[in-house]
Structure formats: C-alpha cells, structure tokens
Amino acid sequence: MPINQSKYIWHHNEMVPWDQATVHVMSHGFLYGSSVFEGIRAYEINGTPTFYRLGDHMKRLYESARIHRMEVPFSQHELEKACHQVVARNDLKAAYIRPTVYQGLGAIGLINDPGCVRVSIAAFPFGAYLGEDSMRDGIEVGVSSWQRPAPNTGSTIAKAAGNYLSSILMSEETKRHGYTEAIALDSNGLLSEGPGENLFIIRDGVIHTPAIHHSLLLGITRDSVIRIARSLGYTVVEQSLPREMLYLADELFFTGTATEVVPIRRVDGLTVGNGSGGPITRAIQKVFFSLLDGTAEDQWGWLEALDRTHQ
Ligand code: PMP
C-alpha cells in the first residue's frame, strides 16, 4: 500500500517539508527499533477535521515511552497541539496521524541516551486499511504459525516499533497463504490478536475478547467497542480463549484505528456464521460509524475538532 504523502511533517518542533523529515542511519531507533509510536485518525465530520480519541492515543504514547524508559522531551499538551498543527498545515480534511518518539543519533550502545530522544508527527490521507470493501464484506483470515512473544520477553502493551517485526512475519506468511490478515496465538497457544488489530469473538450472544495478559496491544478501538457493546446491553468478557473458539464462533471481527471494525467472514477455511457479518457486529459497526460520520451525538467525549488557532 503506497503512502499518500502530504506536504509537511512536524519534526521535533519544526514543520519541515515531507522529504526533509529524515533520520540519521546510525540512529539508535533505526539500528535497534527503539521507538514508540501511535496511529490516530481524524475524520471529516460535518466539514471539520475531527480527531478520534486524540488524548487517549497520546496518553498511550507516553505510557509506551515510559515502559521503554524513554523520556519524551515535550509535554502531552505540546504534542497534541502539534497534531492539530500538522493536520491544519497540510490542509487535510481527514487524516491518519503518526506520532513517533524515537532514539535519534547519540550513543552506540544499548543503553538509552536521554539526550537523543526525538519526536516526529506525520499526517496524511489514509483509506480503509484492509480494503474499501472490508467493512461491508468482511475478510478471510488464517491463524499464523508465528506466535506472539511471551509476556516476559518484551512488552506488547507498549506500541513499540520493534514489536512489529513479529507482526511483519505474520503478515508476510498470511499473504503467501492467500488470506487478508492473520491471527496470532500467544506463547501458551491461546488466542492473542492480529498483526495490527484486536480480536472479538461472539458466541451465543456473548462477546469475548482475549484479556490483557495474552501478549496484545490494549487497543483504543477495542476499548471503544467494549464500551459501545456494553451500552447496547451485550455482555463482554475479557478472558483466555482457545483457538477452537474461532471455529465455534457465530461472529468474529477485528478492531483497530487503521482497520476500524471489520467482520471476519472466514477463518482457516471455515465460514463464520452466515459468512456476511452477524447482527451483533453490524450493531456495533452502526454505532461506531454513526459517531464518525456525524449522525450520532458524541456521548463519550471521544471527538475533538481541529483547532486552527494552534499555530
Ligand atoms: N494490536 C496491534 C498489534 C496494533 O498494532 C493495533 C493498532 N494500533 C491494534 C491492536 C489496535 O489498536 P488501536 O485500536 O488502538 O488502533
């Protein structure tokens, strides 16, 4: 999927042209994957670019940095303001925003060099991650032979660049096998998540999702969906789930900022339910997207309109 480039990137407090937002090849983050990042969306709602859960994403950015003992040299407020600036400066109506906190050029050893932590924020147009039809038609997935790292081998709760080598192995394998996306098991063989998505399983009217200790990212869309589902009166259980639950599910879906809410229509070659997304998935999608197209009230306080005065 080619990047839809925009004009400017906020790079460590400067707005620089896209081509000039570069990193030295000897940067720690480049050599060792020592960077943490976020993926945030802004939607065009009633003609105004509007951030979705900006504060929650930025809070997670600081938590990821804290886990990896990187001190961010800006306040959360400053970086949120920079997100507004980069969307405004690029004159974007809707955007995918990618803040990255990385170890720049400094020490060569493995200890973090506090003086070389740098921050960039890019914003660019971005469509549906798993394809324009994915929301409606659903996707085909397969369980990957690559498992997630064990909890004590790294932190999946941190959204750290290095973690995505595991996701890339899964995604490459999935593509070879002809699926759209993968599902990973954790190091104990229990269900974890997709390479960039959280997983939901519906059986007999109850919604299940793997719990925090199954080597997954605590997705913000996962949290939104749990809250939306509970508000609709469904029971949502965060727990340990064996692989076979995929095969016995009435409905399955993925969530993520890039992915949004996508039904899974086939898993490991078995059709899920009627193969076209079940009623609970559809009910959750309806609430989720009605918030983002401006047809529903923001009862959750998740939306933040672009403020062009943040210059
Ligand atoms: N798991 C992984 C590994 C991810 O990269 C993502 C995308 N950020 C998710 C889950 C979904 O998280 P969110 O809803 O916060 O985008």
Write a concise synopsis of the structure shown:
By secondary structure, this protein is of the alpha+beta class.
Summarize the structure in words:
The chain is an alpha+beta fold and 311 residues long. It folds into 2 domains: 8-124, D-amino Acid Aminotransferase, Chain A, domain 1 (2-Layer Sandwich), CATH 3.30.470.10; 134-292, D-amino Acid Aminotransferase, Chain A, domain 2, CATH 3.20.10. 26% of the residues lie in helices and 28% in strands. It contains 8 helices and 17 strands. It has helices at residues 28-32, 54-67, 76-89, 134-137, 164-176, 220-231, 244-248, 279-292; strands spanning 8-11, 14-17, 35-37, 40-45, 48-52, 95-103, 117-124, 139-143, 181-185, 191-193, 198-203, 206-210, 236-239, 251-256, 260-267, 270-271, 303-305. The strands form 2 sheets. Strands 8, 9, 10, 11, 12, 13, 14, 15 and 16 form a 9-stranded mixed beta sheet that branches. Strands 1, 2, 3, 4, 5, 6, 7 and 17 form an 8-stranded antiparallel beta sheet that branches. Helix 6 (220-231) crosses helix 8. The mean pLDDT is 96. It binds 4'-deoxy-4'-aminopyridoxal-5'-phosphate. 4'-deoxy-4'-aminopyridoxal-5'-phosphate is lined by residues 39, 167, 193, 196-198, 216-217, 219-222, 255-257.
Based on the model shown, name its key terms:
D-amino Acid Aminotransferase, Chain A, domain 1, 17 strands, D-amino Acid Aminotransferase, Chain A, domain 2, 311 residues, single chain, 26% helix, globular
What share of the residues does DSSP label as strand, in percent? Answer: 25-35%
Based on Cα principal axes, name the global outline.
globular
Overall mean confidence score, pLDDT:
96
Radius of gyration: 19 Å
Find the CATH topology of the largest domain: D-amino Acid Aminotransferase, Chain A, domain 2
Elements, N to C (H/E): EEHEEEHHEEHEHEEEEHEHEEEHE
* DSSP, total strands: 17
The first-level CATH class name of the largest domain: Alpha Beta
- Ligands, ions, cofactors: 4'-deoxy-4'-aminopyridoxal-5'-phosphate
* H/I helix tally: 8
Give me the CATH architecture of the largest domain, please. Answer: Alpha-Beta Barrel
Largest sheet, strands/sense/barrel: 9 strands, mixed
Q: What percentage of residues falls in helices of 4 or more residues?
A: 25-40%
For this structure, what is the CATH homologous superfamily of the largest domain?
D-amino Acid Aminotransferase, subunit A, domain 2
Helix-strand makeup class:
alpha+beta
